[in-house]
Amino acid sequence: xxxxxxxxxxxxxxxxxxxxxxxxxxxxxxxxxxxxxxxxxxxxxxxxxxxxxxxxxxxxxxxxxxxxxxxxxxxxxxxxxxxxxxxxxxxxxxxxxxxxxxxxxxxxxxxxxxxxxxxxxxxxxxxxxxxxxxxxxxxxxxxxxxxxxxxxxxxxxxxxxxxxxxxxxxxxxxxxxxxxxxxxxxxxx
Amino acid sequence: xxxxxxxxxxxxxxxxxxxxxxxxxxxxxxxxxxxxxxxxxxxxxxxxxxxxxxxxxxxxxxxxxxxxxxxxxxxxxxxxxxxxxxxxxxxxxxxxxxxxxxxxxxxxxxxxxxxxxxxxxxxxxxxxxxxxxxxxxxxxxxxxxxxxxxxxxxxxxxxxxxxxxxxxxxxxxxxxxxxxxxxxxxxxx
DNA sequence: ACAGTGATGTCAGTTACTGACATAGAAAGT
DNA sequence: ACTTTCTATGTCAGTAACTGACATCACTGT
Lengths: 189, 189
Hints:
Helices cover 71% and strands 0% of the residues of chain A. Chain A is mainly α. The A-B interface holds A 78-81, 112, 115-117, 119-120, 123, 141-142, 144-146, 148-149, 151-153, 155-156, 159-160, 179, 182-189 and B 78-81, 112, 115-117, 119-120, 123, 141-142, 144-146, 148-149, 151-153, 155-156, 159-160, 179, 182-189. The first copy, chain A, binds a DNA duplex through residues 2-4, 8, 29-31, 39-43, 45-46, 49-51.
């Protein structure tokens, strides 16, 4: 028998998500989260940098995944295809827990501060992918544009995927492809 | 002679921008900003919702501009061209004060919290444009994708414009066009 | 048995932000 | 001219996010 209940971080995450949903993000105090998890406020801040980060921890993993995806592309691949590969790797890394993701996205959708954090995480991914492409020697100024657009496509596909869970059987990689094709079509005008 | 020095909001903006640059955003307290502006902390929060917003006030104006730009497009215009018109209207509304914009962007570039806010403002613009397009009866699911991509293009063009000030003579609308063409080219692969 | 380690608790402090009320000129009404 | 009302600001007290310093105590290895 260990001194403390296991998985403190997980308990804090779950307590936070539930409370944010029940009362809203602003109406929830960190002290309440900690109490529900059987811990103290101070311990919360040892695991998470701030009150928002509790919903976004895990995203750090995405950085490596994306970097690896870029690195493992053949040298002959076009910048466009490399970006697509990165997006597909991200899509594949999304945990397949629809209830959890839906709850999380619903909470985020209701609070601008959480949206800010989500947008920052995406921007951070843009930076990582851009850097990875440049280190591959891909010539400069278009890269950022391409990556920025790629993430926009990913965001749209991800939103659709979460929104249509239960009903539609389309997978996230499928939706990604569809969104890319849509974009090409609509840019033709 | 009036009771108070005029332009309290402007003084607060200037004091904040200067202090953020001198000491960094986190190292600056609102009390310090207010003191430099000859006011009190409480008054700061009457003008700005929070410590970050002082750098982003003004953006509210952009919403109307963009909505008007969309509304004034001919009914025959394609969704793509409407979005381009909205982006060009945004570009035209940027105040032509390079020193100010550079200082502001430099401050934002150094602080994640400020980046979050900037990203949220952009997301808000995406929402406004998307809504304006949908109210024009433009069919649904592709719109968000188109607008999201459009803003990504705008961001890249704007960054380039700020970065190349002094040296290059390219205007923001020009850079916008160039970025759009680049995107079309690179998506062809 | 005992010293060290690591996850947690306790506590005090700073600062962002808010609500309630006070004040003093300026403007407006009579 | 006198009074009332309006408005931008100040004062003050309070909440809650976040941080640093130090304490605790079961477990671990020697």
